[in-house]
C-alpha cells in the first residue's frame, strides 16, 4: 500500500528508507509509467534528498536530469513504486524502479510463458495440415532488446508448400488489430522474398473470438493477390481447435448496413463561447457527449455541461482533479490559461514541458481545422466542429476519424494524422476509409449534411496520410502498397516544425 507523505517526519523517514532500498542494488531499471521504456540507472545516477520539507528524487537519463517531488511511495520487495509530481503539479507520474536482477527473472518468466503459448499454437496448426513439419517456431521481436515479442511466428512445410502462421500470445484489444496485422504482413513479406524454393506460400492468422472480426475486416482491405493467400482461424473456447473465419471481399464489406452516430448540431453554449473568447486564436469548442469540450491548441482543459437547465463548467488538465468554475475559481482558470499560453506554443523555451509535449496529434489537428488549405488548397472542413465518429457494428464503440474534408468537386477526403512512427498507419487509414465509404454508400453522410448544402460526389473518398517528413515508419511504403488500389491513398510529408504552421514538403500516391 502506498504511504503518503503528509508531514515533515514522514518525509524524513521516507528519505532514509528509500535511500536504503536504492543503495542495496548497484543497478535499477527506471520507468516513468507502465507504458514507457525502462532505462537502466546505476549507483551514482540517482539522488534522493529532502529540500524545504519536500522529498525530491533526481535521476540522470539520456535526456538529462529528471527531478520529481515524491508524494507517496511503496517498496513491494520486488519493485520501488513512487507517486511523483513535477512542474508545479502539472505533470504526474507513477515511477517504478525494479532491480536489474529481478527484471531479468521477470523477463525470463514472461518469455517462457509466451514460448509455451507459441508451441501450443504450432500444435493446433499442424493438426490442420496432416504431415506438415514445423520448420521454424519463435516469437516476434520485442519492444526492446532482450524482451519477448507479442506474436507467434511459426513456419510449416508440406512438400513445396510453406505456411506462415502468426497469432497473438498475449491478450489483445480489438483496437490492436491494426498493429497485429501490420506486423504480420511485414514478416510475411520478408518470408516471401527469401522463400525461393517454395512453390506455394500461405499465411494463417490465428486469433481469439473477440479479435476475429476486426482482423477479417483489415484483410478485406488488402489487394486481391494478398487476400487470396491469407486464411484466418479463431481458437475455440476450449483452446483445442482452430475454426475458419471467412474473409469478405471489399465489395461485401462495404455492403454491410452501418450504424451512424449523427454529429450534434446544437449551438455553442453561452458559457463555452465566453471561455473560447479568452483566446479565440488558440481555443476550440468541440461538441462531445452531453456537453462541450474546450481545447487549447488541441489540449482539453475545460468542459461545459447543462445541469438542471443551468450551464456548468469544470476546468483542469487532470480529469480526476478538475475544479468547478465559479467566481472564486475564475482566477485559477486564468492562471491555467496563462501557463498554456506560455508553454503550449510554437517556439516555447522548454520543449520537454508537459504542456508542450501533451497531445501532439491533437495540436496538429487543431492547426489544420483552422487552416486546412495549408494541406490542400481545394479542401473545406465540415462546418460542424466535431470529430466525425463512425461505427459499422451495432453496439460497437464509435471511433473518431481525425478529419473529414470535402474537395471542391464534392469528393470526400479522409485525413489521418501522425506525429510519431507507427507501422499501422496505412492500415488505420484504410480502415477509416472503409468506415466513411460505407456511410457514404448508404446515404448517411448526405442525410446528415456534414457540409451544409454542398453536394457529395458519387465517388469513394480519398485518404490523406499526413505526418512530419521524418516520422513515417520504415515499413510504411511496404504496407501501403498492400492496400487495395480502390482505396486511393496519398502520403503527405509535412515540415518537422509543424506546430506553428503546416507546410507540405511532398505529396505522393502510395498504392497505385
Description:
Helix 3 crosses helix 4. The radius of gyration is 26 Å and the shape is globular. The strands form five sheets. Strands 1, 2, 3, 4, 5, 6, 7 and 8 form an eight-stranded antiparallel β-sheet that branches. It has a six-stranded mixed β-sheet with strand order 9-10-11-12-13-14, sandwiched between helices. Strands 21-24-25-26-27-28 form a six-stranded mixed β-sheet. The longest helix has 29 residues, at 100-128. The termini are far apart. By secondary structure, it is α+β, with helices and mostly antiparallel strands. Strand 19 and strand 20 (323-324) form a beta hairpin.
CATH architecture of the largest domain: 3-Layer(aba) Sandwich
Broad CATH class of the largest domain: Alpha Beta
Query: How much of the residues is beta strand, in percent?
Result: 25-35%
**CA-based gyration radius:** 26 Å
Q: How many domain modules?
A: 4
**Main sheet: strands, sense, barrel:** 8 strands, antiparallel
Average predicted local confidence, pLDDT: 89
Number of helices: 13
Q: How is the quaternary structure best described? A: single chain
Give the class from helix and strand content and strand pairing: alpha+beta
CATH-assigned fold name of the largest domain: Trna Endonuclease, Chain: A, domain 1
Low-confidence stretches: none
Distance between the termini: 57 Å
Silhouette? globular
Amino acid at each position: 500500500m502506498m504511504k503518503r507523505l503528509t508531514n515533515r517526519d514522514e518525509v524524513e523517514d521516507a528519505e532514509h528508507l528509500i535511500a536504503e532500498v536504492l543503495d542495496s542494488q548497484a543497478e535499477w531499471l527506471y520507468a516513468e509509467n507502465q507504458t514507457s521504456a525502462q532505462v537502466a540507472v546505476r549507483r551514482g545516477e540517482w539522488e534522493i534528498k529532502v529540500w524545504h520539507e519536500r522529498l525530491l528524487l533526481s535521476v540522470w537519463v539520456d535526456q538529462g536530469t529528471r527531478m520529481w517531488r515524491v508524494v507517496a511511495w511503496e517498496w513491494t520487495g520486488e519493485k520501488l513504486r513512487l507517486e511523483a509530481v513535477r512542474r508545479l503539479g502539472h505533470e504526474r507520474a507513477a515511477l517504478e524502479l525494479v532491480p536489474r536482477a529481478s527484471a531479468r527473472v521477470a523477463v525470463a518468466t514472461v518469455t517462457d510463458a509466451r514460448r509455451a503459448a507459441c508451441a501450443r499454437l504450432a500444435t493446433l496448426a499442424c493438426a490442420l495440415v496432416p504431415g506438415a513439419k514445423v520448420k521454424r517456431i519463435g516469437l516476434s521481436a520485442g519492444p526492446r532488446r532482450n524482451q519477448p515479442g507479442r506474436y507467434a511466428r511459426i513456419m510449416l512445410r508440406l512438400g513445396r508448400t510453406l505456411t506462415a502462421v502468426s497469432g497473438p500470445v498475449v491478450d489483445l484489444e480489438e483496437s490492436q488489430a491494426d498493429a497485429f496485422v501490420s506486423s504480420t504482413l511485414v514478416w510475411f513479406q520478408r518470408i516471401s522474398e527469401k522463400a525461393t524454393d517454395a512453390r506455394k506460400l500461405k499465411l494463417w492468422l490465428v486469433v481469439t473470438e473477440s479479435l476475429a472480426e476486426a482482423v477479417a475486416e483489415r484483410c478485406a482491405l488488402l489487394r486481391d493477390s494478398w487476400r487470396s493467400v491469407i486464411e484466418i482461424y479463431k481458437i475455440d473456447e476450449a483452446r483445442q481447435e482452430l475454426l475458419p473465419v471467412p474473409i469478405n471481399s471489399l465489395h461485401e464489406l462495404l455492403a454491410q448496413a452501418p450504424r451512424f452516430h449523427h454529429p450534434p448540431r446544437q449551438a455553442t453554449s453561452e458559457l463555452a463561447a465566453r471561455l473560447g473568447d479568452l483566446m479565440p486564436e488558440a481555443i476550440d469548442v468541440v461538441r462531445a457527449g452531453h456537453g462541450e469540450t474546450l481545447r487549447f491548441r488541441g489540449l482539453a482543459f475545460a468542459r461545459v455541461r447543462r445541469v438542471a437547465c443551468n450551464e456548468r463548467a469544470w476546468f483542469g488538465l487532470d480529469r480526476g482533479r478538475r475544479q468547478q468554475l465559479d467566481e472564486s475559481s475564475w482566477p485559477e482558470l486564468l492562471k491555467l490559461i496563462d501557463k498554456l499560453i506560455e508553454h503550449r506554443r510554437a517556439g516555447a523555451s522548454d520543449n520537454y514541458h508537459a504542456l508542450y509535449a501533451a497531445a501532439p496529434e491533437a495540436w496538429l489537428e487543431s492547426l489544420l481545422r483552422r487552416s486546412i488549405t495549408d494541406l490542400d488548397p481545394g479542401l473545406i472542413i465540415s462546418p460542424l466542429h466535431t470529430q466525425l465518429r463512425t461505427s459499422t457494428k451495432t453496439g460497437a464503440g464509435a471511433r473518431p476519424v481525425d478529419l473529414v474534408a470535402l474537395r471542391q468537386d464534392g469528393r470526400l477526403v479522409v485525413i489521418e494524422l501522425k506525429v510519431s512512427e507507427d507501422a499501422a498507419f496505412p492500415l488505420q487509414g484504410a480502415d477509416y476509409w472503409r468506415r466513411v465509404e460505407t456511410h457514404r454508400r448508404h446515404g448517411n453522410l448526405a442525410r446528415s449534411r456534414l457540409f451544409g448544402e454542398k453536394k457529395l460526389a458519387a465517388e469513394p473518398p480519398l485518404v490523406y496520410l499526413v505526418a512530419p517528413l521524418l516520422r513515417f515508419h520504415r515499413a510504411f511504403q511496404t504496407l501501403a502498397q498492400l492496400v487495395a488500389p480502390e482505396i486511393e491513398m496519398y502520403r503527405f510529408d509535412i515540415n518537422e516544425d509543424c506546430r506553428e504552421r503546416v507546410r507540405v514538403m511532398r505529396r505522393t500516391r502510395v498504392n497505385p
